[in-house]
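Notebook, bench 3.
Goal today: get a predicted structure for DUF1801 domain-containing protein from Oceanobacillus longus so we can plan the truncation constructs. The sequence was checked against the plasmid map this morning, with no discrepancies at the termini. Length recorded as 124 residues. Pasting the sequence as submitted so the record is complete.
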Amino acid sequence: MADKRRTEAVDQFIEDLPEEIQIITADLRKLILNSSPKLVEELKWSMPNYSYNGLVCYLQTAKKHVNLGFHKGNELQEIDAFKLLQGTGKTMRHIRIKNSEDIKPTFFTSLIQEAVALNEHENE
């Protein structure tokens, strides 16, 4: 089901990454798409972005890690039981993932679902 929402642009983006970063990015992409059927994937600002009623989250790759970022991460900090959200910007926060073992599927899914809910309530 998530496969139908994948875009060729993001497929190509992931394919061009170094192997270890490619694996982390693909795992996070799958997790994001499985978190909510409402999320729409697009390549924006040279990275995968996911939106629903506005921007929700993104994947930013670097040489040795991948950031799972949240556009309204400041509003998610109180439910961040593991204190993984980083950043000091006005609203954006991210979780730095250095290897696949750093991915906490249940926790990340709950953050993504909460981020989707924030956008849902904003437009009511």
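The CA atoms of residues 80 and 107 lie 8 Å apart. The chain has three helices and five strands.
Flagging this for group meeting.
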